[in-house]
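Worked problem 6 (solution included).
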Amino acid sequence: MKIEDLRRISNEEERVAALYEIFDEDSRLSSKATRVEFFTTIRHIEKHLKPGMKILDLERVLENIVYTLRKKAMM
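Solution. The predicted structure is:
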């Protein structure tokens, strides 16, 4: 599937699922620049988290960030 094909999908849920079949967030975060983005985002979010708070993942875009924060909370 190509980006152009996404426009033809009328169902929002199906369109989002198809979008994640095209993009691979893990490989996007493999460069030095995007790793800096990742760790900067983690650091900013952690400033606002308090013990016992829960993290709601509203977008799969944040999947790696939420996973990392949840893992740290379990330590």
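Discussion: The chain has a mean pLDDT of 78.
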